[in-house]
UniProtKB/TrEMBL annotation:
EC annotation from Swiss-Prot or TrEMBL: 2.1.1.33
PROSITE patterns xref list: SAM_MT_TRMB (PS51625)
Entry binding sites for substrate: K139, D171, T208, K209, F210, E211
Top-rank EC class of the record's enzyme: transferase
Catalytic activity: guanosine(46) in tRNA + S-adenosyl-L-methionine = N(7)-methylguanosine(46) in tRNA + S-adenosyl-L-homocysteine
Residues that coordinate or bind S-adenosyl-L-methionine: E60, E85, D112, D135
Name of encoding gene: trmB
Keywords for this protein: Methyltransferase, S-adenosyl-L-methionine, Transferase, tRNA processing
InterPro entries assigned to the protein according to its UniProt record, in alphabetical order: SAM-dependent_MTases_sf (IPR029063), tRNA_(Gua-N-7)_MeTrfase_Trmb (IPR003358), tRNA_methyltr_TrmB_bact (IPR055361)
Protein name as catalogued: tRNA (guanine-N(7)-)-methyltransferase
Keyword Methyltransferase (UniProt): yes
Pathway stated in the Swiss-Prot or TrEMBL entry: tRNA modification; N(7)-methylguanine-tRNA biosynthesis
Recorded superkingdom: Bacteria
Record-stated family: Belongs to the class I-like SAM-binding methyltransferase superfamily. TrmB family.
Amino acid sequence: MTTPKKIDPTRIKSFIRRQGHATAGQKQALESHWDKYCLSPQANFDSERAFGRLAPLIVEIGFGNGDSLAAMAEANPDLNYLGIEVHRPGVGHLMMLLEQRGINNVRIYHYDAIEILEQKIADHSLAGMHLFFPDPWQKRRHHKRRIVRPSFVELLNKKLLTGGYFHAATDWEHYAHDMLGILSAGTGLHNTSASNDFCERPSYRPLTKFENRGLGLGHGVWDLIFRKV
């Protein structure tokens, strides 16, 4: 009898690749601007070469349609932003925004974020990492797919500069408390909340239309900001 192969929980995907249907504008952006903004996951990552300059680097995991990432990059031209997203139409939408607004400080990986972080990003090189409204995997049997787990905290400590920060936001209260417990239990990261739990939304994180709609309906949003000490 063959012994079943054990699944390494650190390699479980925290996403399902859903390609969806791209709009005509998104398709045009994907065809016309891919080489300008998208980086090859097979090539080595060199921040100075990718952006044409050296500047503090912020990574956003799972930027969705890119509205928030584009807004942050436009408001902070002195920072470099690296967005990682598996949803191809979202990549196209972000490239549309970058072209329309003339934003030059964003580069994109259309790939698995954990693999990019592990294999392409130099240790102790990130000024910040953002994880805004990740899939909560609300069913208990799917909690193992949540991206914030002990192995992810180890990765944060490895990739962030001293003084660098990790900022997560979610509208799922259970996931917020789950992340708080995992981040607090890890070593090397300090909760910046004065009450040692959640933070007010900082001004640099844009309020999305979906979040604003939810707040109008009385839904909560929880922000966590931990800094590497």
